[in-house]
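Ticket #4471: structure export looks truncated?
Reporter: QA, pipeline team
Priority: medium

Steps to reproduce: submit the single chain below to the structure queue and open the exported record.
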Amino acid sequence: MQDAAAIQSALQPLTKLTQANMDLITKFSASPEVTSQAINDAQKLFQQAQESAMKLAQSQAFAGLMQGFMQNYTEFLTEMSQSATTLFSQGQAAFVQQANEATSNVVEATQSGARRLRHAA
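Actual output as written to the record:
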């Protein structure tokens, strides 16, 4: 326990210095002059960002980017449509095949049953 007290006592000047500096920084950053300057700087930065974005939006590079996006999405939608059509037609063909097989099985079972009845009679 004495060691902890000795360390705390030895660190007391550093703790006091740190706290005093933190108080100064807090007072400085909360001062009306600093707050006003920070707000003005933020407004200028926002305005510059808007102007820059507007210039970029009017550039040939941005137009090319948007045109490329449109081409990519058009190609994507075309391919998706073709895939869906293919999938639908394959599904339809599989359904027709299964229906034909089921019909054939029913006809075969009916004919087989009829033959048995004839042989039994």
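Status: closed, not a bug. The export was complete when the record was re-opened. Leaving a note from the reviewer for reference: The helical segments are 2-29, 32-57, 60-120.
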